[in-house]
Amino acid sequence: MQIGMIGLGRMGFNMARRLMTGGHSVVAYNRTFSKTEALAREGAVAADSLRGLVDKLSPPRFLWLMLPAGGPVDEHLNHLQGLLSPGDGVIDGGNTFYKDDLRRMRFLSEKGIGLVDAGVSGGIWGLEIGYCLTVGGPQALFTQIEPVFKTLAPPGGYLYCGDTGAGHFVKMVHNGIEYGMMQAYGEGFELLEASPYAASLNLADVAHAWNRGSVIRSWLLELAEAAFSKDERLSDIQGYIEDSGEGRWAIQQAIETGVSAPVITHALMRRLRSRNREPFSDRLVAALRREFGGHTVHMTSPEGEETDESSE
Q1: How many CA atoms lie within 13 A of 99 on its CB side?
Q2: How does pLDDT run across 133-162, given as a tens digit for each residue?
Q3: What DSSP designation does 27 have?
Q4: Which of 76, 181, 206, 278 is the most exposed place for a label (fewest CB within 10 A)?
Q5: What is the side-by-side strand order in the sheet with 45-46?
Q6: Does residue 65 contact residue 92 with C-beta atoms inside 8 Å?
């Protein structure tokens, strides 16, 4: 089938390539036109504007958005609402908060335009092995677009989850679980790296062994093995960890529904902490220990070097 692809970042570009390999016709638009041109060299139809993209699609038109959550999605939908026709459909495949889906569905439905929300997981490996898709929205619209989902996903790798927002809700929970799993792996391997047996342990070998029959085997552990094989001590990587929103939304949902989610919450807090080299809270705790107990603190000299200072 014919599909318009808006947003050719790391995910969108490879998704478009997988769709073309699967026999679909892709009309592509990206603000940086060089990416559109690159995809056109592989067989896509290039559009240099949203109007141009819509004009190159045959009704009913289906457009897939792979854009950063928030403002960019609203900006594009505001423009598209004036270009599309009743019976057309938009698939939001980005990391969107499910409550935004509900608002946008009402906005688009004023013009008879349908909205499908698709949670997409697979990262840079999706082109080769497929993307896991959790989909929400009107079931009739899902059925119309289902050939696209079949092509993007590996066998059994896509799921219709329910009404508008359900796909992104399930993806939000998925990413919350991912936060907790990665944090657990990080803490476990840090224990190994700091252990009395660190000199005799090869962390890539540990990950490899654990992935052969153990109860903690996973694709993440395969990726850990690959990372350790490149640099066992990860010496070239800073421990600065971003978050793209899903963990925050999952915790917000846990609070709203009264569900205890301490592991996901802790994992998010560790990500936030990773961005502060010298947290003010730690400096205050050190100062309080000095004040009430005369404990030694590490001071920063005028030259910026840390020194030991005893209160004795």
Answers
A1: 6
A2: 999 999 999 999 999 999 999 999 999 999
A3: E
A4: 278
A5: 45-46, 25-29, 2-6, 62-65, 89-92, 114-121, 132-136, 158-162
A6: yes
Nearest to 204 by CA among 235, 228, 230, 233: 228
How far is it, in rounded angstroms, from Cα 224 to Cα 73?
Answer: 33
Active site residue 256: no
Catalytic residue among 37, 146, 178, 232: 178
Tell me whether residue 171 is one of the annotated catalytic residues.
yes
pTM exceeds 0.85 for this model: yes
Give per-residue burial for 11-43: e unless 16+ CB within 10 Å, then b: bbbbbbbbbbeeebbbbbbbeeeebbebbbeee
- Indicate which residue of 35, 171, 225, 246 is catalytic: 171
Beta strands 62-65 and 89-92, pairing class: parallel
Tell me: the pLDDT tens digits for 178-200? 999 999 999 999 999 999 999 99
